[in-house]
Design a protein that fits this description.
Helix content: 55-70%
Number of strands: 3
Number of domains: 3
Strand order of the largest sheet: 1-2-3
Distance between the termini: 26 Å
């Protein structure tokens, strides 16, 4: 073996790469493909004459996402820092384009852009990725200034325009909450003053309780919008069994009928037209029905392992920018998993939010995989220490 080859091998060995994280993501993707086919085959066969219709579309999006992940993982993550501000502006423009003829309405919601070449994107998913880049760059550029009241408020207010646009223009409150939640978690990691966050949490909880109280007082009036009706259905789903509580009740029936070990893969009854769009937001309920409590806990443990790997990479990142990128991705996935499972189990009011890597959704899986590529790029920059 010549010195050049030996030097290259030694150099490669000095760098870390998180294969555990990559394996967990690939397993979740594979499991998601199986569950999408199991969950959607009946509806797809009835509506499109092809039981694998949704599976094929998800497979294409997943393949594109994996290609984008590999590319992103092999590009030094500091390269993307220059796109922080342009990405913020582009995401705002794309959200506004929903109001133009490029915007299309699907299932009553106008949240997608159709470019007429078989490509349909959801701007909210792009905004989540761009917000992570923007906030990581902003925190690093501010340095110790983030500890001041002005710096703290600047970081906290930065995602508000995008969050409000997602909420009002695309009528997607869940994605707006996720974008703001990403910012709060990144700020929590970067700021040493935790008292402010306890105060924010107390104010948020009090505001939520106040909104619920007001809505319950207005229950008999006609002034409530569909979100108010969803809150009432959350509090008493049986009273709204034929309306806003229908999907939630059917999901709870699926979870309860699964038992400990489930009915078996493909044996769900609730997916046969009882749960609307079961392959999307409510796929966790079908997992519970077919694989039981055992399967549900196994998936939750996999997500916890994924979060743990994110923490390992963030703690060992070479610099603050890399660590914040990983924290942003971790916050995005953690918040989305918690909200999805909470909705399915009726812990919080029903809102449309997918389960990362498992639910059907091309835009979601593609941009999640790009985020994973960023994390892998940060992990690849970690050097082993000689002992």
């Amino acid at each position: 073996m010549d010195r050049f080859t030996e030097r290259r091998r030694k150099k490669a060995a000095d760098h870390y790469f998180d294969y555990s994280l990559l394996f967990i993501v690939l397993f979740l993707l594979g499991f998601g493909m199986v569950m999408i086919y199991s969950t959607s085959s009946y509806e797809a066969s009835k509506d499109y004459g092809d039981a694998a219709y949704y599976l094929k579309k998800q497979a294409v999006a997943t393949a594109l996402g994996i290609a984008a992940m590999i590319f992103t993982a092999n590009v030094p993550y500091h390269f993307w820092e220059k796109f922080a501000i342009p990405g913020y502006l582009i995401s705002a423009v794309l959200i506004c384009l929903v109001l133009t003829p490029l915007g299309v309405k699907v299932k009553g919601a106008r949240r997608w852009l159709d470019f007429g070449i078989g490509l349909r994107l959801q701007p909210a998913e792009i905004a989540k990725l761009c917000m992570i880049l923007f906030l990581a760059s902003m925190v690093c550029s501010m340095g110790k200034g983030i500890r001041s009241r002005k710096g703290f408020l600047m970081i906290l207010l930065a995602p508000l325009p995008i969050s409000v646009m997602i909420w009002k223009i695309t009528d997607n409150l869940s994605s707006a909450i996720i974008v703001f939640g990403i910012a709060v978690l990144m700020l929590f990691v970067a700021s040493p003053d935790y008292k402010k966050f306890f105060l924010m949490g107390a104010i948020g909880a009090a505001a939520a309780a106040g909104i619920v109280y007001i809505i319950t007082r207005l229950a008999s009036s006609d002034s409530l919008d569909f979100r108010g009706e969803r809150i009432l259905a959350w509090l008493n789903p049986e009273a709204y069994a034929s309306g806003k509580g229908f999907q939630t009740l059917q999901a709870l029936y699926a979870i309860g009928s699964g038992g400990i070990f489930g009915k078996g893969l493909g044996q769900s009854m609730q997916k046969l037209g009882f749960i609307p769009e079961a392959q999307n937001d409510m796929i966790f309920s079908i997992i519970c029905e077919e694989l039981g409590l055992f399967g549900a806990i196994a998936i939750i443990l996999l997500f916890l392992l994924l979060i743990w790997r994110f923490m390992i990479v963030a703690n060992n990142a070479p610099d603050l920018f890399g660590a914040l990128l990983v924290v942003g991705v971790m916050g995005h996935i953690a918040i989305q998993v918690i909200l999805n499972i909470a909705v399915v189990t009726n812990t919080i009011p029903n809102t449309g939010i997918s389960l990362p890597f498992i639910s059907y959704g091309g835009s979601s899986v593609m941009f999640l995989l790009i985020e994973i590529g960023l994390v892998l790029s940060v992990s690849h920059s970690i050097r082993f220490r000689e002992v």
